[in-house]
Amino acid sequence: MDTTYTSQPPLTAPVTPEPGSDTSTADQAKEKAQEAAGQAKQKAGSQLRSQVDQRSTEAGQRVSGIASDVRSVSEQLREQGKDQPAKLADQAADRAEQLGGYLKENDAERILGDLEDFGRRQPWVVIGGGIALGLVASRFLKASSSRRYEQRSTVPPRPTAQLAPTTPATTAAPTPPAPYDTVS
């Protein structure tokens, strides 16, 4: 069995960069970290834009489909002689078509910029929308958790190992307890 021992290098004083040197190792590490953070931020931003582009196009197509359905409802209402509700349905369909076209035609930069501008112009609307969204989400979570609880309580318990029934060979009378010893 070979055992090799290594000696520790002699202790030396820390090396300090000369006053005329360009950058120290710490500065280089800092620059690399900043560069990596900048690249990560740029990559996340491009992924966000890509997702917004894709989702907004899909949402625009769905909204346009809904607008078409609302137009059909409007026509049916007109056939039934209900002009006022038909007019309201037409207006809703027009708005939906405008929204669908906006979502399909504009890129992520434009949509995000418009959302930021709206948030700056109407901060209370954004705050109210956030509160409403939070309330809806909490109600949804509460409802789903109560359903899960009910499902758990209605599930039959798991079968446990049952012992084989025993048949007593003889039934004997129980033995009385032993009397206590008393010292007198």
Summarize the structure.
It contains 4 helices and no strands.
Describe the structure.
The structure is a single chain. This protein is mainly α and 184 residues long. Among the domains are: 33-120; 122-154. 67% of the residues lie in helices and 0% in strands. It contains 4 helices and no strands. Helix 1 (25-79) crosses helix 3. It is flat. The N and C termini lie far apart (80 Å). 5% of the residues are buried. The model has no long low-confidence stretch (mean pLDDT 78).
Provide keyphrases for this structure.
184 residues; mainly alpha; 67% helix; flat
Describe the biggest sheet?
Answer: none
Which structural class do the helices and strands define? mainly alpha
Radius of gyration: 38 Å
User: Strand share of the residues?
Assistant: under 5%
Mean pLDDT across the residues is: 78
Please report the total strand number as a whole number. 0
Number of helices: 4
Helix percent band: 55-70%
What oligomeric state do the depicted chains represent?
Answer: single chain
The global form is flat
- Taking pLDDT < 50 over at least 5 consecutive residues as the criterion, the unreliable ranges are none
Q: Gap between N and C termini, in Å?
A: 80 Å
The helix/strand order is: HHHH
Question: How are the elements arranged and paired?
Answer:
Layout: H1 25-79, H2 83-105, H3 108-121, H4 123-154
Helix pairs in contact: 1-2, 1-3, 3-4
